[in-house]
Amino acid sequence: MMDTKQHKISFSTTAVHAGKKEDQFGAHVSPIYQTSTFVFKDVDEGREAFSNEEGSETHIYSRLANPTVEHLERAICSLETYGMDTADEYQGMAFGSGMAAISTGILTLAKGGHVIAQDALYGCTSQFLEGEAPELGITTSFVDTSDSFLVEMELKKHPNTKLIYLESIANPTMMVSDIPRIAKLAEDYGALLMVDNTFASPYHLKPITLGADVVAHSTTKYLGGHGTVIGGALVLKKQLIQDSAMAVFRKNLGGIAGPMDAFLLTNGVKTLALRMEKQAKNTMKIARFLEAHSAVDRVWYPGLESHPQHHLANAMMSNGFGGVLAFELKGGYEAGKHLMNSVKLCSLAVSLGTVDTLIQHPASMTHAVMSEELRNQAGITEGLVRLAVGIEDAEDIIYDLEQGIL
Ligand SMILES: *Cc1c(COP(=O)(O)O)cnc(C)c1O
């Protein structure tokens, strides 16, 4: 943009402006290129475009590339590589969902090898690693990545490890892993580190600046911010995209984002910093309220001193600790169900990262099909409640929770 030696553009300002290119009509907001195909001036232009699909400035067909989608890709890449001297070496890739981004990343980067994955992952990611990935020639072992020693043991056990996979903040205990240390281990053992940064967002944490090779996002959440889109993204080195043939993979498996969704996401990205700031502040206030409540057994939030990785989170994250917390009600299943049925402001729904507050009770909702024993093993107790805090005023959310907690 307009960084100079004297003045460095801030992250918030970057979020507002990143990715925009001049428009032929001078449109202030980037237009939505809602088109499936692009017209060539003549045969020569068409030939040039096809002979140099990835490097060509000429657009061919929106499953390969689309200007609205590219705006989004530039914006996310700028935020994840913010402040880096080597930012130009990186590229963003947008997908039709977080899972399309994650599965594409894993399949192309761990081809024919082994993955060491965090044991508490987003449900569909673990299902993919346990289900489809082995059938496609990729094996996975799951470890508690909050203990870097265990990661190193696993690397020694599996010399064919190509990828270490973890989440910047992981459900349900909001666990944090030591990204700089694990990035170093990955490098030492010839593997890549991929981090799903959905929960922290680049506002709080930028895994690539801490040594990770690839960042994945469900843009459905904080980057979109309004709960209107399902989308995903990857950010990685251009060289790695080339070496892994990732763009070809996306083209042929067809997982790219659509222009309308990309447009909604670019608008979301503009307010990322503003929303995250308020959401993180709200969540901290609510976490303190819950921790002091006599009906609450325990609160899981990396911003609390009581969180097992609070110091690590503090060292890696800036401007707060995100907008999701979990807490355990002493009254168990019945207390959880009662709270779900009593809230008026909070919506009873899965997902996170929307401007309004969402609440869910895993034992009776997302994880109801699991046996109680398996749920307990995964840390999902009967009274566990997850709150994805919005930008309402904290006092109103607290009032809503208070009247529902028995
Ligand atoms: C939602 C989510 C996903 C999946 O993203 P979709 O956009 O729903 O496909 C992956 N990882 C995390 C951490 C998520 O919260």
Structure explained in plain terms:
The structure is a single chain. With 406 residues, the chain is an alpha/beta fold. Helix content is 39%, strand content 15%. It contains 17 helices and twelve strands. The protein has helices spanning 11-17, 43-51, 67-80, 98-109, 123-130, 132-135, 148-157, 179-188, 201-204, 238-244, 246-253, 259-270, 272-291, 310-316, 332-342, 372-377, 394-402; strands at 90-95, 114-118, 139-143, 161-167, 192-196, 214-218, 232-237, 296-300, 324-329, 347-348, 358-360, 384-388. It has a seven-stranded mixed beta sheet, sandwiched between helices. Helix 3 (67-80) packs parallel to helix 12. It is globular and about 75 Å long. The termini are far apart. The mean pLDDT is 95. The site of pyridoxal-5'-phosphate has 16 residues, from helix 4 and helix 5. Residues 97-99, 102, 122, 124-125, 167, 196, 198-199, 218, 220-221, 230, 232 line the site of pyridoxal-5'-phosphate (PLP).
Rg to the nearest angstrom? 22 Å
| Secondary structural class | alpha/beta
- In order across it, which strands form the biggest sheet? 1-7-6-5-4-2-3
Question: What overall geometry do the principal axes of the alpha carbons give?
Answer: globular
The low-confidence runs, each spanning 5 or more residues with pLDDT under 50, are none
Notable traits:
single chain; 406 residues; alpha/beta; five-stranded mixed beta sheet; 17 helices; globular; binds pyridoxal-5'-phosphate
Provide a short characterization of the protein structure.
The chain is built from 17 helices and twelve strands. It has 406 residues and is α/β, with parallel strands linked by helices.
